[in-house]
Amino acid sequence: MTDLLTMTGISKNFGVVQALDNVGITLRAGEVLALMGENGAGKSTLMNILSGSIVNYKGDIFIDGKKAVITSPLTARSLGVAKIHQELQLVREMSVAENFFMGREITNKVGIVNKQAQEKEAAYYLAMLESDIHPTRLVRSLRVVEQQMVEIAKAISLNARILIMDEPTSALSKAESRRLFVVINRLKERGVGIIYITHRMEEVFVISDRITVLRDGRYVDTVNTQNTAEGQLISMMVGREVEDIYPSRDPHAANEVLRVEHLNVTFPAGSFKRSLKDISFSLRAGEVLGIGGLLGAGRSELMETLFGVNASHVTGDIFLGGKAHKLTSPAAAISAGISFATEDRKGKGLVPLRCIGENMSLPKLRHFSPFGVMRRQEEYKEWQQQMISLSVKAPGTFTLAQSLSGGNQQKVILARWLMTNPKVLLLDEPTRGIDVGAKAEIYTLINRLAAQGIGIIVVSSDLPELMGISDRIITLCEGRVSGEFMKNQATQEDILFAATLTKEKAI
Question: Which of the ends of the chain has fewer CB neighbours closer than 10 A, N or C?
Fold first, then answer.
């Protein structure tokens, strides 16, 4: 293979923070180069430089042996560089096809946009991923996983020679990921070079040819995938051995903190959300309850319902501490002692252009301003306590949330809800898109919170994770409870079988 891309001596600092220090990588035509490292290692900064989002840096970029000066995303695109972003970059109020061709619209001779041609081409690239998303659908009607598929198809449609994939499968199921891998192999055959960023270790060994590791903004090494063991790779990433990613604990579940009886959620015709049917379960203080199931099974809808989001469509009973509660809104759920960390950090979790502390304070603004005047010192004190307690890595509480790594953004969201002193904590895909070291920290935090008597419900698409952190697991299939397992009493195969156990199969 010939060298398609060479980046040498790349350095970048943000104020006093040195994000990259003399980093270099090489990408060959027709290969997948996995770019690995913990959150904050510099991966996204390096790729933002290559894709034109960051222009003030030191070092050189060569494409096909010729020096390239990349001054904007448009310049990068003209040089054959395209990027699939970890955080979705779609315009919610526009259709799928309009998002595909934003800035490069297909027009007729007099400059009028040819919507039909755009929809036809968008449908072609979505079909490559075996997706049935219609090009006319508004992006705001799509779930996170569907938006991810649109992002991937859009990037492929650019016919790039250098394709950057930043966590492309973070919201995809195993089957959808396999379809993406088929497309990646087709692109390799056409000579496309792919830089693949992921925290899913198993994917690296399936799809990549070589692996480049960064740590703390510095280059560590580049190795051939087939000659590298997982433990060796983790050690390169974190600079130490990570022997037990799922820390053990002795569960001491106490009294029942939450009980759901015959919960039904019926969404109106035309809704793209999954209705829920006759769901019953309980949760004890200090217990970690895992929710398993395939994408679209109703897991997120269940979490949203427990947080008061779908109140107008709900029947059934919800008990907290043995008392019936009507959760008519998120505010009512918070008052009752329920907190919810959503799977969509950017869209529904953080306010990226506000600082860390302000993001933490959102559910407690009335508490901090009882007479319309903010009690700043009390607020700042809580910010600092949460920063220390959760080991948020940032210069200070006034750092903008958008500048943090994915793992630290997740800690900020958790800090926000811990400030409300919840009895029940709902975590929807809490480790999506974060590295192995940050995952271990989140798992340790979950154990710590459970030991404090908080009842925790975790939704995860990662079966080893679900089995590693849960005391008990229930599965959903087509909006119904389809199975229940105690810790260490079920295999991945058992859980997957239950997750596909439709009502018809059960009968």
Answer: C
